[in-house]
Amino acid sequence: MARFWSPSARPGTVDRLAVRRLILAAALAALGAPPIPALARQATPDAAAMEEDPELAKARRTVERFLTLLERNPRPGTSLDRVYAFHAERGELAALVERLRTRTEANPNDAAAPAVLGLIESRRGNDAAAVAALRTAVDRAPDDPDPRARLAEALTVAGRPA
Q1: Fewer C-beta within 10 Å: the chain N or C terminus?
Q2: Residue 113, CA atoms < 13 Å, CB-side half-sphere
Q3: What is the spatial distance between Cα 29 and Cα 77, in angstroms, rounded to a whole number?
Q4: How far is CA 83 from the centre of its chain?
Q5: By the 8 A CB rule, do 26 and 18 touch?
Q6: Is 126 in a helix, a strand, or coil?
């Protein structure tokens, strides 16, 4: 989903007025009308306004610490809850999943990334992706019982035998 920004929009929300302006500008352009500078100016943020709110930056750093803890010990609990809630509230779950997927593919020895990915996908209700990620974690850490336990839980939720 495209993101639209305006000074009046709260973080993680879509500014309906900015969307309307963008649609109007696109419609006028499609009709061959010359661009209206005021519409273009309001649809794009300036660099100073794009800086992240200090409170949001602090919350993001805290969540990154929770993600580090979750990678050290990938299991349901406070760390997973905080990481998931932060990204879900801001509509950033897809970006987090993609980041974990990329890391999983880039490092074939990393068992933490697919384990965390499996937990996130399971929380999202995407059982097939959760099972696939947890199978990868089990393959990469065959002596660790935690990925096996999470895989058994995911298979049970998905309605498949463990």
Answers
A1: N
A2: 15
A3: 51
A4: 10
A5: no
A6: coil
Structure tokens at 1: 């989903």
Q: pLDDT tens digits, residue range 40-96?
A: 455 455 444 456 688 989 999 999 999 999 999 999 999 999 999 999 999 999 999
Q: Are 146 and 74 in contact (CB under 8 A)?
A: yes
For tokens 């352009």, the residue is 29
Q: Are 162 and 151 in contact (CB under 8 A)?
A: yes
pTM: 0.67
Contact 129, 121 (CB under 8 A): yes
Cα–Cα distance measured from residue 37 to residue 44, given in angstroms and rounded to the nearest whole number = 11
CB contact set of 27 (below 8 Å; sequence gap of 6+): none
Question: CB neighbours (10 Å) of residue 140?
Answer: 19
Report the alpha-carbon distance of residue 13 to residue 3 in Å, rounded: 8
